[in-house]
């Protein structure tokens, strides 16, 4: 699409970046309603007008799933909001989700040409707007499916990677079945991300659209126990399997007191709240015991979700304990900012060394030690070094560990010949292929914990590789038939 903006680049650069309105912190602290209200249509058009329409749109290369960002923004500029949503969906089947939870500031927006001297175009907020507009006005039209193929593909896990792979393959004409271990669909999108960041109505709508392509989803089905990968292929007739089971096994620090009542992993805590609706107790039968003073250990988005959720569940003081400085925090800047607005207390350069027992096997406090930053480690971040004699006690009744997670080992243990990497991840090649022919893997089960959009990229890559694998097998069958004549 050629340039359509009548304004000169110098004029566009003078237009300030639009900011979506947000609910006040004091109001949102008491509920799980979404924080950001999103752009209005006029805001979206103004923001789209800021785009420089680069002849070499580096924003697309900065997007893990290669959305044609320049074209979709031009459609917004022309107020063709539904066309913009459809343009995004050519590369990303979950735009309403990605517009909310993807770290655009470190990907597409990070390389935006306008951002070199000014604020970059708000690509993420524009993506959310057009997806919501299409959804609100019920203007979604399912993409056309190609000719039906006879091969069946099994997708294990219904998170962002599994849903993406399933959607792509279904559009290509394959029969796809998704097997989900939990009773609800969405994986980490449902059990890990709170509603104030990703409303369940949005997730449910996106899931229904995937199902609308003909994808079958079976819940309460634990691959490796209900049926093994080999059984899916040899007995159930699936020609290929994509493993997208995520990383649901939490890490702990192995410090004294981690077995006390009142210590949670972030996975358990967020699952109890997000999936089992602990916030609605006693209307639901799944309460979560939370003290008035809560400490969350970690500095990523999961830690932010846990500490902000604690605040909403009634914690009078909610601490975020992180062993490095704010500069090294991996959490999104937007989430850090929201947490600060909501009264979260940040204890930087601080690391727990012991959780204190009140004599009844319950948490009474947490002994922490101050840290200094040394030389960079293998990740490029400066290593924290304990400061001798700096210990102090933080009075808390609840401690939530949010320091990472690893894949559940069930599938690895029940699939002979499936090679694994460090911390139990499934080893994969460039096309997400595993050591087992016809078996592919992606998302957190192969990465050990990453972003939603990277999981989706793996799903797209795997879908293309699965199709290539199946077409190759079909050609072999034809050649063998010819040779036998």
Q: Secondary structure elements and their pairing?
A:
Elements: H1 9-12, H2 25-28, H3 41-49, H4 58-62, H5 69-77, H6 81-89, H7 95-101, H8 123-136, E1 152-156, H9 160-171, E2 175-179, H10 188-191, H11 200-211, E3 216-218, H12 229-234, E4 240-243, E5 249-250, E6 263-265, H13 266-274, E7 293-297, H14 301-312, E8 317-321, H15 333-341, E9 345-347, E10 350-357, E11 363-376, E12 382-386, E13 392-394, E14 398-401, E15 405-406, H16 410-414, E16 439-441, H17 444-447, H18 452-484
Parallel strand pairs: 1-2, 1-4, 2-3, 4-16, 6-14, 7-8, 7-14, 8-9
Antiparallel strand pairs: 5-15, 10-11, 11-12, 11-13
Helix pairs in contact: 3-5, 5-6, 6-8, 7-8, 9-18, 13-14
């Amino acid at each position: 699409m050629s340039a359509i903006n009548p304004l000169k680049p110098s004029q566009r650069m003078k237009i300030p970046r639009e900011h979506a309105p947000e609910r006040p912190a004091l109001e949102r602290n008491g509920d799980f309603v979404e924080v950001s209200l999103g752009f209005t249509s006029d805001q979206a058009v103004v923001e789209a007008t800021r785009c420089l329409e680069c002849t070499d749109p580096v924003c697309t290369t900065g997007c893990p799933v290669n959305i044609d960002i320049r074209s979709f923004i031009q459609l917004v500029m022309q107020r063709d909001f539904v066309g913009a949503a459809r343009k995004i969906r050519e590369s990303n089947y979950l735009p309403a989700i990605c517009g909310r939870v993807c770290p655009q500031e470190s990907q597409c927006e990070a390389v935006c040409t306008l951002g070199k001297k000014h604020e970059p175009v708000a690509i993420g907020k524009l993506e959310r707007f057009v997806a919501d507009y299409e959804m609100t006005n019920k203007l979604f039209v399912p993409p056309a499916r190609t000719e039906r193929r006879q091969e069946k593909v099994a997708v294990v896990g219904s998170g962002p990677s599994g849903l993406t792979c399933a959607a792509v393959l279904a559009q290509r004409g394959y029969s796809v079945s998704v097997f989900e271990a939990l009773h609800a669909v969405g994986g980490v999108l449902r059990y890990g991300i709170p509603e104030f960041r990703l409303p369940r109505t949005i997730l449910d709508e996106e899931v229904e659209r995937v199902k609308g392509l003909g994808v079958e989803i079976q819940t309460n089905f634990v691959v490796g126990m209900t049926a093994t990968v080999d059984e899916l292929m040899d007995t159930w007739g699936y020609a290929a399997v994509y493993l997208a089971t995520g990383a649901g096994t939490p890490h702990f620090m192995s410090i004294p007191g981690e077995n006390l009542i009142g210590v949670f992993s972030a996975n358990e805590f967020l699952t109890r709240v997000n999936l089992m609706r602990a916030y609605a107790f006693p209307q639901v039968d799944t309460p979560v015991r939370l003290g008035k003073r809560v400490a969350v250990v970690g500095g990523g988005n999961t830690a932010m979700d846990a500490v902000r959720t604690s605040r909403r569940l009634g914690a009078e003081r909610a601490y975020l304990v992180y062993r490095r400085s704010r500069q090294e925090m991996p959490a999104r800047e937007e989430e850090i900012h929201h947490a600060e607005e909501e009264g979260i207390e940040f204890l930087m350069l601080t690391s727990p060394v012991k959780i204190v027992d009140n004599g009844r096997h319950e948490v009474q406090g947490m002994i922490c030690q101050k840290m200094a930053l040394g030389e960079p480690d293998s990740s490029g971040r400066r290593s924290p070094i304990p400061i001798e004699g700096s210990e102090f006690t933080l009075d808390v009744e609840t401690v939530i560990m949010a320091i990472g997670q690893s894949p559940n080992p069930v599938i690895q243990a029940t699939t002979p010949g499936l090679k694994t990497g460090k911390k139990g991840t499934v080893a994969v090649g460039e096309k997400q292929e595993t050591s087992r022919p016809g078996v592919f893997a992606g998302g957190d089960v192969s990465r050990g914990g990453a972003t939603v959009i990277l999981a989706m990229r793996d799903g797209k890559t795997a879908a293309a590789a699965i199709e290539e694998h199946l077409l190759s097998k079909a050609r072999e069958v034809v050649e063998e038939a010819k040779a036998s004549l």
